[in-house]
Amino acid sequence: MAMERVGSSIAEELTGLAFGDYSDVRLAKFKRVQNHVVLTNPNVVHPQLQFAENQPTDAAFFVHSPADAAHADEAVVYLEIWPENHHRSALLERIPFTDELGIRYRDIDYKGVGDIDIDRQTKKVVILTPGLLYWQDGDLVRERKGLLSKKDAMHDYGKTEELARLGIRTARTLAIILLDELIIDGNTVSLADAIEAGILDGEFNPVIQVRAFATKARIRDLISKDRVKMLRFREDPIRNVLFEDAKSLVSEELGQDEISDEDYLVWFAQTLGSNVGLLHKAGYAHRFLYSHNITLDCRLVDFDSIRILEDEKQREHDLRTSLSSLHALAKLVKPELREELEALFLDNYSEVTGI
User: Fold this and answer.
1) Which DSSP state fits 332?
2) Contact (CB, 8 A) for 218 and 320
3) Where are the domains of the chain?
4) pLDDT (tens digit per residue) in 93-115
5) What does the alpha-carbon distance between residue 224 and residue 295 come to, in Å, rounded to a whole number?
6) Beta strands in 283-350 (DSSP E)
7) Dihedral sign of CA atoms 246, 283, 304, 96 in order
8) What Rg, from alpha-carbon coordinates, does the chain have?
9) First to last CA, the chain
10) Which residues of the chain have pLDDT under 70?
11) Could you read off the pLDDT of 293-302 as tens digits, one per residue?
12) What is the Cα–Cα distance from 54 to 65, expressed in whole angstroms?
């Protein structure tokens, strides 16, 4: 069996824990699929990962099976997954680099690589059939499970480039890869066959969006559905590593040897307030500034929902959701700082916007 391991688990790389300890929930098997690159970003160039427009790449992977599944004669690679909150993405690698503006990146993420979840009873990774439309709160959701449309990826790319030039902290797109194949129930299927089977329609063009973060981890990744575990997140070997890693990245950015929890939270509140202020000053509303769309090094991400800021209601919604995310982070780390952090957020927001 030909197997590669691409990248490494957060537990192994950042704490020295054994790779196998978390392989059942932090890794999955992926296979290369036929593709061609439709966009490369000239402003953010990775030192090793190179793409050429209108050409195929051998770095296009789609989820195949859980890490512990036995499949003979399958040429697969292991990628790191975060199935609790990131159901259609995987982490390729961690290699630090900077862009032309000197902005730092490290985590390379693939979005649109299949439908990955956890069975809530067995706590095992499950790979679901990609491409299905689904219902949420009584409405048919436009997105297809596990997949990303070319339209949404291109929209996100355009907006992140515009906002990055305005000084807003965000992730960046390295490339967009149009998929010519999917993997469905362990089988490689052409798009034509997927359309014939009713898994896709002819108007949906599935892509992988290759994104660069400093840390992919979001505030939401520190939150557990178990209240006791959530409030004692430092005892969790994964959540604590994610938090300490983010603090390390921030301290490096600030030119410090280390940063305390309190100083980190103060920096985060001020930076978040400035980021949201710059977004609104530019005339945009994010609309989904929940804890899943704010990274632990305070970057606003996932701009497929961004719209023109048209009224006070939209502005207040962004403020309310971003403050709620800040409150969630403070509750985990130092709940007694909640009011101080909220005041710092609003002060920086007002300084940027004049509101």
Assistant:
1) H
2) no
3) 3-213, 219-353
4) 888 999 888 899 999 999 999 99
5) 16
6) 284-285, 307-308
7) negative
8) 20
9) 61
10) 1-25, 70-74, 133-143, 225-231
11) 999 999 999 9
12) 29
Tokens representing residue 234 in the block: 């430092």
Q: Contact 59/76 with Cβ under 8 angstroms?
A: no
Per-residue model confidence (pLDDT) at position 71: 59
What does the pLDDT look like over 66-78, one tens digit per residue?
987 765 556 788 8
The beta-carbon contacts of 231-240 under 8 Å, at least 24 apart in sequence, are 231/331, 231/332, 233/332, 237/11, 237/15, 237/17, 238/10, 238/11, 238/22, 238/26
- 116, 83 contact by CB (below 8 A): yes
**Class of domain 219-353 as given by CATH:** mainly alpha
Tell me the C-alpha distance between 51 and 211, whole Å.
13
Q: Compute the distance between CA of residue 339 and CA of residue 281 in angstroms, rounded to an integer.
A: 25
Nearest to 53 by CA among 67, 43, 40, 66: 40
Q: Dump the DSSP string for 181-246.
A: EEEETTEEEEHHHHHHTTSS-TT--BEEEEEEES---BGGGG--SSHHHHHTGGGSTTHHHHHHHH
Coil/strand/helix, residue 163: helix
Amino acid, res. 82: W
Quick one: pLDDT at residue 131? Answer: 81
- Nearest Cα to 295, choosing from 254, 246, 335? 246
